[in-house]
From TrEMBL:
Family under the similarity heading: Belongs to the ABC transporter superfamily.
Primary role: Part of the ABC transporter FtsEX involved in cellular division.
The entry's keywords: ATP-binding, Cell cycle, Cell division, Cell membrane, Membrane, Nucleotide-binding
Designated name of the protein: Cell division ATP-binding protein FtsE
Highest taxon in the source lineage: Bacteria
Subcellular location: Cell membrane
Keyword Membrane on entry: yes
SMART domains (UniProt xref): AAA
GO molecular function, one term: ATP binding
Subunit structure: Homodimer. Forms a membrane-associated complex with FtsX.
Gene (UniProt): ftsE
Length: 229
């Protein structure tokens, strides 16, 4: 599903954020990306969602060579990728229902299909009761669930989450993890999650890729050590 082959990314200021990275993530996997600040985690996510393009090497996601995408094609490519950030980024003047529907309207789905899918998503993220509420009327955990609902509304092949629990207390973080697991299992979405939260990584065991200074320094399958470069 995701293949990086010899990928390097240097920013204009000369920072080498990703160095000669090669890794494979299978369809349906749930993978953590961990590592100290500045190790390249967000850059890795940006290379997957097409926000950044590698200087060398190849990034293939769901059959698309992301680095070779024409500028105009990027928005179409992005429909395959759901993105969730630490801050919720919901549209403040739209209800939760409308926020989720908006993602589907933007890709031109018809009204009946949108209504059906939004109801389905609200149920999946346990926010049926909040359909008519505005983001400011929801708790942080609920807002993050709504954001996740919006990100997966059009059934993307991959969900990338950059510190999705970064602003939440442990109980709410666990709730988000259970939701991401449910999406991974029920919707068969490949999940790539950047996190600093070692408690979560210990509790919800998944393949864990550790980065340091732009390199993959460990790749551990559910706690078992499989690779060190
Ligand atoms: N747009 C940019 N322009 C220039 N340098 C950047 C840019 N984005 C990131 N960097 C640099 O690239 C390196 C990797 O950054 P990145 O954001 O990928 O790390 P990170 O592991 O996600 O860090 P954090 O845990 O602090 O979010 C850092 O040295 C950072 O300062």
């Amino acid at each position: 599903m995701i293949d990086l082959m010899g990928v390097s990314k240097t920013y204009k200021n000369g920072v080498h954020a990703i160095k000669n990275m090669t890794l494979h993530i299978d369809e349906g996997e749930f993978v953590y990306i961990i590592g100290p600040t500045g190790s390249g985690k967000s850059t890795f996510i940006k290379l997957i969602d097409g926000e950044e393009i590698p200087d060398s090497g190849t990034v293939i996601v769901a059959g698309t060579d992301v680095g070779k995408l024409k500028f105009k094609k990027v928005p179409y490519y992005r429909r395959n990728i759901g993105v969730v950030f630490q801050d919720y980024r919901l549209l403040p003047n739209l209800t939760i229902f409308e926020n989720i529907a908006f993602a589907l309207e933007a890709i031109g789905q018809d009204k009946a299909t949108i209504r059906k899918r939004v109801r389905e998503v609200l149920e999946l993220v346990s926010l049926e009761e909040k359909a008519r509420s505005f983001p400011r009327e929801l708790s942080g955990g609920q807002q993050q669930r709504a954001t996740i609902g919006r990100a997966i509304a059009n059934k993307p092949k991959v969900l990338v989450a950059d510190e999705p629990t970064g602003n939440l207390d442990p109980e709410k973080s666990n709730e988000i993890m259970r939701l991401l697991e449910k999406i991974n299992e029920e919707e068969k979405t490949t999940v790539v999650m950047v996190t600093h939260d070692s408690t979560l990584v210990d509790e919800f065991k998944k393949r864990t890729i550790a980065l340091e200074e732009g390199y993959v320094v460990a790749d551990m399958m559910k706690g078992g050590y499989i690779k060190h470069e």
